[in-house]
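Hi Y.,

Following your request, here is the sequence exactly as I used it, all 486 residues.
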Amino acid sequence: MPTSWNRSPEEFHKTYIANTDAFYRLGNSGLAPELDKFVTQCALGLWSRSAGVTQEHVDMANMIYSKGQRSPSWMLWTLTSAVCETDIFMPPIFFWNLAESDAKRGTVASRTFIRMVTNILLYLAAADDDVTMDEARYITEVIDKLTAICDASGVGKGKEALNPMDYVTSTEASFLDKNPPAVQTASAGSTAAQNTAEEQAEKPNFDELMEQLESLVGLEEVKKDIKSLMNLVKVRQLRKQNDLPVAPMSLHMVFMGNPGTGKTTVARLMSGLLSAIGVLNKGQLVEVDRSGLVAGYVGQTALKTQEVIQSAIGGVLFIDEAYSLSSGGENDFGREAIETILKAMEDHRDELIVIVAGYSGPMQDFLSSNPGLESRFNKYFWFPDYTGEQLMKIFEGQCKKNGYTVDEEASALAAKFFQALYEERDENFGNARDVRNRFEDMVSRQANRLAQMEAPTREDLMALTMDDILDEEDRKLLEEAEETEE
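Below is the corresponding structure, written out as tokens. Let me know if you'd prefer a different format.
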């Protein structure tokens, strides 16, 4: 019996946009990439329970994208392969955060999200004009797991989602039941070869990444240490290829330094470099802090941390301000996150690299807080504060990148200011972040100045002048620094 949920791909996309736009008004439009990825993963799991994967499924998969996001480019063979490789359903990190936010603010956006996802999955299940029993069970599993998070987090009750079992139209066996993995593997040799070729084609270019590393302002010791590490890893790879013994080596790292010193940028380059030479098979960087790992209720932290770890398999898990995981005392849930991460480092030692980062002192305390931490991290990188001259170079890079010019007089003033900013720095000094903030302030002052002009020229729109460089507070800082010198 045909289902009432069947829609054309174009109609489904309009519905998807309407639902996601409504949700973003409750939640955050910045969630669009994560939400699209989540729905796609749900679709793969759902269709592994369908009677078969058809062109209708491909057409629907290519319509799973929010407004302003890039449309996918699935083909029948790539979608079929992805459906065969689908894993168990795991709630996404952004949903944990959404539920915790609801609990604190007394809102129910996470409950609204469950209803929205239920409807979208019913449309996707009906791509072939049938909703199978197995598909309905899968949607129910998604609803139940998301609802459990809302209940455990203390989110208020909301309108219930639809019951997928009410819309079953077929009890036909699922695609995977009819095509066991062994058969699929045997008949998918060409697909596997094409996937391998695609992965190889998409491998990052080692030389280009090293050039990007070299182009970073400062960090000379960091660059030197990374080059040495890459040489060591390359030689290990060659020894393996020549059947020579290779001693075990941990590639988990500690990045120590103040905010804005390039730790995240270097971690991203590091993940690409390790992928380029074959140590990591994907090379993605998953960046989290305590809020992305620790939940507010007993038993949730391990699940939340495991979800993050799964998304980082094949790449690098970068934990910023990692010391905050051990700063809450013996009964703090951060300890549970640490134990979960340590287990993953052992279980996935050949496919996951963990980089922990933060201030030097607190990081030393963090590493000594658990016996397993110090033994697993043996590569340390120190990120020093940028000097005044280096801050100026970062500022010049911001100007060039964004199409702004600075005359000699304004440039000299900016150089003096950044030198003063460095010399007068305290524990709140933000390094490159301070430069970016100052640059944005300059652009804002320039905009206010140009708004008074009747018809600013192209040159006017590009030029940052003496009047744009400093505000009153910055001028005071510069004057105090000059008085100190005298």
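The CA atoms of residues 405 and 459 lie 9 Å apart.

Thanks again,
Q.
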